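User: Structure tokens for both sequences below?

Assistant:
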Amino acid sequence: MRITLLVVESNSKFLDLFKQHASTKEWKIYGACTLKEIRQCFGRNTIDVILLNLVEMKHNGIGILKKIRKKSIPVITINSGNQLSLSIEAMKMGVFDDFLMPLNLDALLEKIHEASKEKIKAKSRFPLIKHLQNSMIAATYAEAGEAEMAKTFLSIDKLVN
């Protein structure tokens, strides 16, 4: 499965090590450490999962998380045991998962894969919701004696889905 991953990390050594460990995957991995770099990456790429390292970024990382959570992209955070309050705050903000240092890189790669699947599921649920909405609207028009309008909503639904 091809995944596009954005690693928000201020430590280039970690990014290099992570890329090396993930080299067997067919993933595109981008690195960023500032909001400007993150915005540039979003402008040029469709990101599937974000890996956000809070270890060195601390509260700046939480600020970045607040901004990127608006994108509805699964975020996995990495943190150290002495900053558990940041992990708790990130989990409250809805991150997909949180890993503590030292990392089990294989488990992290598996979790990134799971997060990517979750994003795909979330996208596929939207057409079902839209279909149900159109069906309910059509039923309402049909009950009101507006059969043509009901047919219009049902035919629009067929075109979209």
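Moving on to the next sequence.
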Amino acid sequence: MRITTIRHGETDWNVEKRAQGSKDIALNQTGLNQAERLAERLAKEPCDIIYSSDLLRAKKTAEIINSRHHVELITSTHLRESGFGEFEGQVLSDPKVSAKFSAFMDKRAPAYFTQVHRYLEEILRVGHENIFIVGHHGTVRAIICYLLKIPVEHRGVYIIGNTAIHTFEMTNDGKFAMVLENDTAHLN
């Protein structure tokens, strides 16, 4: 089994360093271009099914990828970014906001990761061999932690760029190994 996680393309709020959370923000032109380059990069990769967050930025990225694969595309609220409450729309480069946001996420992350992990378990039970999952910064981090058995407290170790690819392959002992990490070579 091979799982490829993909973060959505760029949005204006990414550029402005605003917390998006569950706000339904669309890709900007750069994000659309990134998704096209990503789709070209993944065109020859085997893919049996694509799962995606139902938020515009992820769904559009998934649709562009699927224009090369033509497989079933399933969208789900379970792959959405975590809700950021009062922080949605705020600029995270402000040190006061950043510190409060970090504390908020430390409390919010365990419940959010559990939600993503439960849905990922459903995906794995279906048993497709080559799975693409398109989501958000938080979604990809949650999947990494699940597949590599990393505690939620260590989630910050992983950086996930716009349209970054992380690929995992199941080993002979039934565990997953990361074979590609935060790959954005298609953007160069």
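User: Anything stand out in the second?

Assistant: The chain has one domain: 2-187.
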